[in-house]
Amino acid sequence: MAENYNGMAVGIFELDSLAACFVALDAASKAANVKIQNVERNRLGAGACVKMRGSVSDVTAAMDAALKVAEPLTKIFSHTIIASPAHDTEPAMYMTAGK
């Protein structure tokens, strides 16, 4: 089963506003071919944490679009991309998405 995820990535971002999360998700899904895995309310108040997956390039493009839309609307608590290695001998990569 692990071979199904080789070369794939997970993008995670957390915003201060649930409404802004859905606006950001809309931008992300229109920018790239990603699957939205989960949206969960955070314990910080009115915000939410969003998880999406796809190829590294798609997740990177989706995260860039989501954060660009979210930045003027709300506070961005965190954002990370975790990329699975293309081969079992490579380490996983962790990157912070650009704004």
What does this structure look like?
Strands 2-3-1-4-5 form a 5-stranded antiparallel β-sheet, covered by helices on one side. It has helices spanning 18-31, 56-70; strands at residues 8-15, 35-41, 48-55, 76-83, 93-95. Helices cover 29% and strands 34% of the residues. By secondary structure, the protein is of the alpha+beta class. The model has no long low-confidence stretch (mean pLDDT 82). The protein is built from 2 helices and 5 strands. It has a domain at 14-76: BMC (bacterial microcompartment) domain (Alpha-Beta Plaits).
List the helices and strands and how they pair.
Elements: E1 8-15, H1 18-31, E2 35-41, E3 48-55, H2 56-70, E4 76-83, E5 93-95
Antiparallel strand pairs: 1-3, 1-4, 2-3, 4-5
Helix pairs in contact: 1-2
